[in-house]
Amino acid sequence: MRCITLLLAASVVAGCQTPIPAANPQMAWVDLYTPFPNDRLLMAERLDKQRLSDGRFFQVTPGSHELLVRFDYEVTGGGGISIMGGTTVRTCYLTLNYAHFTAGQRYVLEGRSMALTPEARLYNAKREIVAEVSDYYCLM
């Protein structure tokens, strides 16, 4: 068991050191962002139901796409969620659909938590909201 844990930790560290590739001007680029400290992780999981090899961003062809992200965030106290009012990490998977990705454009998918409810919005380069999460499920 320790060997598996050590191998997983080493692969995570190695993945963080890989440089992000250059943006392809024929595709749209989607950065991932969380504005609050208790929002720990927002990671790309699937693009059009296909698993991604690098969870730090999406790079998509123009047109319509379904994005699935993993969102881990801290939940504090009460509600039977954590012991003795402490914090625990909640893992959710959020689905976002957007039909108008444009080649050469940069977008930001911003995830945030509102109590027990995860949210995510897709912003264009003008910081206008162009899409919001259509569905989500959580493991806790």
Structure write-up:
The protein is mainly beta and 140 residues long. It has one domain. It has one helix at 2-17; strands at 28-33, 39-47, 50-51, 57-60, 63-76, 87-101, 106-114, 117-123, 129-132, 135-138. A 5-stranded mixed β-sheet has the order 4-1-7-8-9, with no helix packed on it. It is globular and about 50 Å long. Residues 1-15 have low confidence and may be disordered.
Summarize the structure.
The chain is built from 1 helix and 10 strands; from the N terminus they run αββββββββββ.
- Count structural domains: 1
- Biggest β-sheet strands, sense, barrel: 5 strands, mixed
Please compute the radius of gyration using only Cα atoms.
16 Å
The SSE order reads: HEEEEEEEEEE
First CA to last CA: what distance? 24 Å
Shape: globular
Figure out the total of helices.
Answer: 1
Average pLDDT, all residues: 85
| Low confidence ranges | 1-15
The secondary structure category is mainly beta
Helix content: 10-25%
What proportion strand?
over 45%
Number of strands: 10
Order of the strands making up the biggest sheet: 4-1-7-8-9
